[in-house]
Automatic annotation (TrEMBL):
This is Signal recognition particle receptor subunit beta. Belongs to the SRP receptor beta subunit family. Keywords: Endoplasmic reticulum, GTP-binding, Membrane, Nucleotide-binding, Receptor, Transmembrane, Transmembrane helix. It is found in: Endoplasmic reticulum membrane. It comes from Exophiala bonariae. The chain crosses the membrane at residues 20-40. The keyword Endoplasmic reticulum applies. Pfam families: SRPRB. SUPFAM superfamilies: P-loop containing nucleoside triphosphate hydrolases (SSF52540). InterPro entries: P-loop_NTPase, SRP_receptor_beta_su. The keyword Endoplasmic reticulum applies. GO terms for cellular component: endoplasmic reticulum membrane.
């Protein structure tokens, strides 16, 4: 059957057959609708709520911080509310929150100043994973969450009132936990088995309890943590050498900061692994409650 035959497909397509016209209309209007629905549902399925991982030793004030901002999310006018009474966490908890519309978002810097959406002060949804700070639960419930694809940053809460002595067990425990956290972030970036390169996560060291008389100032908290982490780093490095892991490749992967001879500083991680670390003081309880966490919320907003 040739193309010129009255029964050929080409002849029927141009013959004005109502069936052919109906099929053409169905394809013309139905295909774009189907494609739109497919990509729209795919986008909603892959879109996840921005999440922050909350770490820190027991008693630092992690759960109190979450309780406070949760109350502020439900009652935006209650700026100076006290956190609800808390108890030691045993398992991780994912808490959905709303960032006040008055706090600027980091993504706003890519918008035009004439963008009308900037004038709409709508709250921004996000979530925080509150993790237990007990030493036996950190690996299972805390550090294992660092591979969460929705993570936008890590918040490490420290009790600045117990860091006044480098010989205190609380100071050593805080530094060891922070060392392990930063090392896990470093290994996350240098994971050669990952198919897709991972972006560096910013870290906020929230120096809590700044309202107490015994609390170290923010600058002193930063210096104390850096010096204590250097002690842990040197001790761990000697332990690796003792078991034969003295090659440059192993040392770079297993020693915080890449195994160089320079003393550890937070700046070193930013230069070598693009991991920015900010130390910001605040207070969850006391006279500064509510206002005392404002700068932490601004840091969260800068990551969104």
């Amino acid at each position: 059957m040739g193309w010129s035959s009255p029964d050929s497909i080409l002849t029927r397509l141009f013959s004005g057959d109502p069936l052919i016209i109906a099929i053409a209309l169905l394809i013309t209007f139905g295909l774009p609708v189907c494609l739109h629905l497919y990509f729209y549902t795919q986008a909603n399925r892959t879109k996840s709520t921005p999440t922050f991982l909350l770490l820190g030793p027991s008693g630092a004030g992690k759960t109190s911080f979450v309780s406070l901002i949760q109350k502020q999310s439900s009652n935006p006018e209650e700026k100076e509310s006290e956190p609800s009474p808390t108890r030691t966490s045993q398992v991780k908890t994912n808490v959905s929150l709303l960032l006040p519309g008055t706090i600027p978002l980091g993504s706003n810097k890519y918008r035009s100043q004439n963008d009308a959406s900037l004038k709409d002060k709508h709250p921004t949804p996000y979530s925080i994973i509150d993790t237990p700070g007990h030493g036996k639960l950190r690996l299972e419930h805390a550090l294992s969450q660092l591979n969460n694809p929705a993570l936008r940053g890590v918040i490490f809460v420290v009790d600045s009132s117990v860091l006044d002595s480098s010989d205190s067990s609380a100071s050593r425990d805080t530094a060891a936990y922070l060392h392990d956290t930063l090392l896990a972030l470093q290994r996350r970036l240098s994971d050669k088995g990952s198919k897709k390169p991972k972006a560096a996560l910013p870290v906020l060291i929230a120096a809590n309890k700044q309202d107490l008389f015994t609390a170290l100032p923010t600058g002193a908290v930063k210096d104390r943590l850096q010096s204590e982490i250097e002690r842990v780093r040197v001790s761990r490095s000697k332990g690796l050498s003792a078991v034969g892991q003295d090659t440059d490749e192993d040392e770079g992967d297993d020693v915080l900061g890449g195994g160089g001879e320079d003393k550890f500083t937070f700046k070193l991680l930013e230069e070598e692994y693009d991991t920015k670390i900010d130390v910001i003081g605040g207070a969850v309880k006391g006279e500064e409650a509510g206002k005392g966490v404002q700068r932490w919320l601004e840091w969260i907003g800068g990551c969104l």
